Amino acid sequence: MSCANPDGMYCLVDCNVLSNSVLSGFSALLCCAVLTTIKANGKVLAQEDTVELAVASERLIGTDGSDMDQTTSIMSQPQSAIFIEFEPVPKITPVNIPSAIPPIAFVITNTLVVSDKAVTAPVCYNLWVVET
């Protein structure tokens, strides 16, 4: 995916994604930038193509993230989880979250462990992606 002669744009970015955070924080911000750029250039892309563009964009900065973060950010649906398959072709299946008593809760915590991916990505993070 590419956009020949893209329109320029002025952007002001402000977010509360923690510096060096995990839980796909960077990938979510990158997906937002990709979606914004697509919209600013008057393009319409299928979700699968948008995911592919986001993955390619992340790799341009040296992070070989798995496609899972971008797929989740772009293709998820309200009130459901998604089951992701990548072979033979990328495919998602929504999985409804059932109501339960007590209600189901997802707990996300901050371990306060800092991982400077800008420094360690070429070795640690990219190796982890290959190993998993």
UniProtKB/TrEMBL annotation:
Task: Spell out the GO cellular component terms annotated for this protein, sorted alphabetically and separated by semicolons.
Answer: cytosol
Which keywords fit this entry according to its UniProt record?
ATP-binding, Nucleotide-binding
- Give GO terms for biological process: galactose metabolic process
Q: Which domain of life is it from?
A: Eukaryota
InterPro entries attached to this UniProt entry? Ribosomal_Su5_D2-typ_SF (IPR020568), Ribsml_uS5_D2-typ_fold_subgr (IPR014721)
The record's listing under Gene3D superfamilies reads: 3.30.230.10
Signal peptide residue numbers: none
| Gene Ontology terms for molecular function | ATP binding; galactokinase activity
Under what name is this protein listed?
Answer: Uncharacterized protein
The organism named in the record is Coemansia reversa (strain ATCC 12441 / NRRL 1564)
